[in-house]
From TrEMBL:
Coiled coil: none annotated. It is a multi-pass membrane protein. It comes from Microbispora oryzae. InterPro entries: DedA-like, VTT_dom. Keywords: Cell membrane, Membrane, Transmembrane, Transmembrane helix. It is found in: Cell membrane. GO terms for cellular component: plasma membrane. This is VTT domain-containing protein.
Length: 171
């Protein structure tokens, strides 16, 4: 099985590069919506159902990041799962300068979307090539990855439920 190069690969009948470009534009649009929702609702957003699910302590930590790093935090949030969907509306609620916010979110979309898209594309095609060559090995890799993800989720949940001061001490 030959892995097609990204310029000739397609998804949904469209060239992969075009799907990635559309994804970047869509994410940029979503980030603008997040910002303006946060700006419009302000701290009332913290009391919303979404704010309650995230938790006041986490929101305050995100606030600290935004206050300290500003637009750099907006760019950095693209690379941290979970933060990517919280920080933009907190930035809006804190009224981060919109010009800097737009620049940082545009840069984030232009870097994060292609890196993750082509990275996932490469991983999927590599796994499919492995499956074509050795289905048993590919199944073993899939089971190993699933076990690692499950272990990570369990570890994070335990760490999140640990009493203050005991997180990370193996309890």
């Amino acid at each position: 099985m030959r892995i097609p190069d990204p310029t000739s690969a397609s998804l949904f009948g469209l060239p992969l590069w075009l799907v990635v470009a559309v994804g970047a534009v869509a994410l940029f649009g979503a980030f603008q919506v997040y910002y303006w929702v946060g700006r419009r609702l302000g701290t009332a957003l913290y009391r919303s159902r979404a704010g309650q699910r995230i938790g006041r302590e986490r929101i305050l930590r995100v606030e600290g990041l935004v206050r300290r790093w500003g637009a750099f935090a907006v760019y950095g949030c693209f690379w941290v799962p979970g933060l990517r969907h919280t920080l933009p509306w907190v930035a809006g609620a804190l009224r981060v300068d919109y010009r800097w916010y737009v620049a940082a979110s545009a840069l984030g979309c232009l870097t994060w979307v292609p890196v993750t898209s082509f990275g996932l594309y490469s991983l999927i095609w590599a796994w499919l090539a492995l499956a074509a060559h050795s289905p048993v090995t590919a199944a073993g890799v899939a089971v190993l990855v699933a076990a690692c993800v499950a272990a990570l989720v369990m570890w994070r949940r335990r760490r999140g439920n640990a009493p203050a001061g005991s997180a990370g001490m193996g309890s």
